[in-house]
Model the fold of this input.
Amino acid sequence: MAKMWPKLSKPPVEVALFQLKFEMGNTALSDFLKCDSQLSKYFPKRNDTIEASINLPSSSIPLGVSKISGTSNAKMVNYVYYSEDQKCKLTIGEGSLTYTDERDYIGWDEFERIVCQYLMVFAPILEKHIITRISIRFINQFVLDEFEDPTVYFKTIISSAENGVPYPLIKYGFRLMLDIKEGVYSIVNQNLDKTPEKYLYIFDIDVLNKSNLIFDISSIQSVLQELREVKNDIFFSNVTDKIIELCN
Done:
């Protein structure tokens, strides 16, 4: 039975991200352009990133304006598709697909549905490819009126003194790497910044599965569910009732 977590009426998610890493095999980056017409239904804008290196003669370059001959080597690095408001982005690179969503978060089911929708588009190309890593990343942001005592909001903290920090905090941050199980780990970043009127607290949870599997959408969905459980366990195990109240 699926785990139950508190329902948040105002989820603090600022960015939701999904990434797939895979072996390219005999597939070329340009092969993904076969999906261009389908992707353009969701992403009307596309930017192509080209990386170029230039080899110049070993002779010294004179000052001022002059003509210099050299050899250039340019290659396509990635294709980036954007929604009209640029809040959704799909990046296709050598051995990676990354979906980034900065819209108001309305729940996991919709996030997973959209991810699978794009995976269906790429299925004819990625069929039989080896997936080397599947990951999700959720960047949560909290707007706080005060932050004199971190334990009011979070259970995982860093203490610099037995009786607490003697002066008000302006910046605060630390990083954790958690070993969940073989092949699965999480990188958690927590950072605080003070604005003139508020405190902005970032709770960034990245969960990764680096177990190899053959491309299959149902198998990827199973991994996603597992990563979601880890992500939620980390989130709800680290926030206090005060944070839950703020999210409702």
The CA atoms of residues 43 and 83 lie 4 Å apart.
